[in-house]
Design goal:
The protein is an alpha/beta fold and 311 residues long. Helices cover 45% and strands 14% of the residues. Strands 3-2-1-4-5-6-7-8 form an 8-stranded mixed β-sheet, with helices on both faces. The longest helix is centred in the middle third of the chain and has 29 residues. Bound molecules: nicotinamide-adenine-dinucleotide (NAD). Nicotinamide-adenine-dinucleotide binds next to helix 1, helix 4 and strand 6.
Length: 311
Amino acid sequence: MTISFEGRVAIVTGGGNGLGREHCLQLAQRGAKVVVNDLGGSLDGSGASASAAESVAEEIRAAGGEAIANGADITDLEQVEAMVAEAKAKWGRVDILVNNAGILRDKTFAKMTMDDFKKVVDVHLFGTTNCCKAVWETMREQSYGRILVTSSSSGIYGNFGQSNYGAAKAAMIGLMNVLHYEGAKYDIRVNALAPTAATRMLEDLIDSEKVKELMSPASVSPGVLYLVSEEAPSRVILGAGAGSFAVSRIYESPGVFLGSDATVDDVAANWEAIADPAGQVALANGGEQTGKFVEMAATALGIDLKQEQAA
Ligand code: NAD
């Protein structure tokens, strides 16, 4: 199978460095017209420079592809809207949005300032949301859209010293879950990536050159391309790193009905059964959990819900 992006227009945020640069290059190699967005700041989000985005756009053009550079700060909705307008003016549509831009301000929660917490949430959560918002109407009108949000193992599983980053990255999953449902009617598919790669973000944590080589950003991008391709799934969290790919899911244990008058002691006494993973499932949406709990209660109490609803 050969996946092509011929005729597709893609916006990649944070495309001037690391993972975003590779996503841009690989999309362009397969025919996409690419808006390489990058504020060109430092790892902690300070500063700005147009050169990062420009050099990647130039690299694509030099290889015969089509690309424009854009220096919008994704935390600024007006700048993001102008970027989308520029893409549409040049190429008529926006098919793909790869939300990749991000920063780090790691500190233990005890030492974390609220400014550092808010800044990280602002870039990852509000920056991503701005970009989704700015393309949403266009994708609805086109009845076609592919959106990727970049989460992280830190958001899914947790990492010491990253309360701001982990919270923001977990929020990506919440955003994906809901946009998946709201976009489905318009063939807008929304997925999340949890990458791991030897970029400047991980530089200080990897001391082996061999491991750095294995963890190339280029080894992650094929997963991104699949998640924004025509045949993409939707509402998937894809882990990718060093050439391996895996899907993360959130499961819910079957649970135990303890009665609406259950006490804290009952919860404690039944903890093992409540937490027992045997028979756990990944629920399709929030309503399924409510439905499950009501059904468990009705079954335990001998209530016929169908009869109750008809009455
Ligand atoms: P990177 O620092 O190399 O690249 C991030 C890019 O985003 C930079 O070029 C930066 O200028 C840009 N950027 C930052 N703030 C911006 C803003 N407000 N507007 C526009 N551009 C902005 O880092 P990377 O490792 O390539 O990270 C890419 C994404 O992957 C990030 O979202 C990061 O959180 C995520 N991630 C990376 C790893 C990893 O192992 N490298 C792991 C988990 C998640």
